[in-house]
Amino acid sequence: ELKVEQNPLFLSMQEGKNYTIYCNYSTTSDRLYWYRQDPGKSLESLFVLLSNGAVKQEGRLMASLDTKARLSTLHITAAVHDLSATYFCAVDRDDKIIFGKGTRLHILP
Amino acid sequence: DTAVSQTPKYLVTQMGNDKSIKCEQNLGHDTMYWYKQDSKKFLKIMFSYNNKELIINETVPNRFSPKSPDKAHLNLHINSLELGDSAVYFCASNGWGTSDNYGYTFGSGTRLTVV
Predict the structure, then answer these.
(1) DSSP string across B66-103
(2) Which residue in A31, A91, B9, B49 has a CA-CA distance of 20 to 30 Å to B103?
(3) Side-chain half-sphere of B11: how many Cα atoms within 13 Å?
């Protein structure tokens, strides 16, 4: 059974700091996703990572994928308050995506 | 234009009632899903349909019955609602295999509260 584990589950950090969210998954997968969810809102697609060594960046967020280690990271550079949200990684297998439990990120001004 | 739209956005109902949630996508995707997000924000797949055919049923109680009249629509009917059914239900569609390379697109969610 495919399992997806994120850590940390809660993260409170100061503006301007850097931090990384980790996502481990238990079996081989076709694709890995990162989503953002604001309170009461839907899931917004941030990144889709397709192959080993893939790295994608959008603004202060950068995601990477190591399929051999079954690990993806979401790195936040010089955090700003607007990045406060819950971030989910998800892994695609057998035509469905399995989500991690999410990382609730709170950035203090 | 909304890519995946769900109605209603909010639903408050009493235990024992029957209710339906509707979902429509205008992306031309073949595969649609229902996901449940509980109070702890955990997201879990419930059902998947590919071109009107059920392909995934994740041991959901049979009080939940999905229906797909065509590949653009996937509705969820819930009988005899229970307190534990309170959650946010998300519809999604999957564009892999088409010209859409963004993967999964989610609707805005339906917040169901059973009282």
Answers:
(1) EEEEETTEEEEEE-S--GGG-EEEEEEEE-TTTT--S-
(2) B9
(3) 25
Residues of A in contact with B6 (CB under 8 A): none
B50, closest residue in chain A (CA to CA)? A95
Best of A2, A33, A43 to disrupt the B interface (most B CBs within 10 Å) is A43
Q: Tokens at residue B25, please?
A: 């996508």
CA–CA gap between residue B5 and residue B8 (Å, rounded): 9
Return d(Cα B87, Cα B89) in angstroms, integer: 6
Secondary structure of residue A26 in the 3-state scheme: coil
Q: Which residues contact A26 (CB under 8 A, 6 or more apart)?
A: A1, A2, A3, A4, A70
Cβ–Cβ below 8 Å for B104 and A102: no
d(CA B88, CA B85): 9
Closest by alpha carbon to A21, among A91, A93, A105? A105
**Phi, psi values for residue B42, rounded to 5°:** -75, 135
pLDDT in tens, A51-93: 888 899 999 999 999 999 999 999 999 999 999 999 999 998 8
- Residue A85 carries which DSSP code? E
For residue A103, what pLDDT band results from cuts at 50, 70 and 90? very high
Q: Do B106 and A98 touch (CB under 8 A)?
A: no
Q: Is A83 helix (H, G, I), strand (E, B) or coil?
A: helix
